[in-house]
UniProtKB/TrEMBL annotation:
Compartments reported by the entry: Cell membrane
Family, similarity comment: Belongs to the binding-protein-dependent transport system permease family.
Organism this protein belongs to: Paenibacillus piri
Keyword Transmembrane included in the entry's annotation: yes
Protein name: Carbohydrate ABC transporter permease
Amino acid sequence: MKAVRASRRMTLFDAIIYGLILLISLMCLLPFLYVASVSLTDPEVYKPFSFYLIPQKFSLAGYKYIVSSINFKNALYSTVYITIIGTILNIIFTFTMAYGLTKKNLPHRNWIIGVVILTLVFNAGIVPNFLLIKSLGLLNSYWALIWSAMISSFNLIVVKSFLESLPLELEDSGKIDGCNDLGVFFRIILPLSKPALAAFTLFFAVAHWNTYFNALIYLSDAKKWTLQLLVKTLIVDASSTSIEGTRSDNDFILPLETIRLSAVVVAMLPILVVYPFLQKYFAKGVLLGSVKG
């Protein structure tokens, strides 16, 4: 009887926990559903300050207007360029440096690791970073956003811990077969690091795709703005100076709210599409990288 009562208490406790998780999940999901619903609502039936999760009448007018906007095309090109080039360079620099730091015979290894850890505690700040980018002649260029976020100290330490968890015997066997250090790295280490590569590729891609503050500081040319800056001007700026107007092809004035939320959906959609393909590597890669940390 005691076991049955304990089982009932546990069942009730589990139900309460699951209910709280479901409630929190709905609270996080409802804003996304509302944004998608308003962006898909026909401008003729849209009612400001009204809440609904299912569009009363479907329409893609907001998306058509956003996609046809010249500023959107420029912002999309800028964001895609920064995300692809930046993510590739992030992966190359992070994994090569982390692999080098796993070698105990590396000259000044402890000093380099100490400098990396020091940057986790102390940050130079906005003004020194801006002066550095300016002195390098990178202001108002895409490379200001790419180089300023080249290596994250935290990610570097996690990748280093992951690479140290790989068996050293594999490297020794590769060298016995005639591979040099580069051959071991590209033929043995990287193929074994697919979960970590997938996880950190997602990390870096999301960071570059959502870059906003650095773009706000370093980019003064509106033609080089990223999607996040464009969305900011649509949502925050009441004048909405980043779009050429709110009149559609059929000469119908589109509600500004529909355009704003359509831009939000377009800005976050690519990451939502990519994430499911990397999800199976995501948790595994992060856990493996934190085993020896």
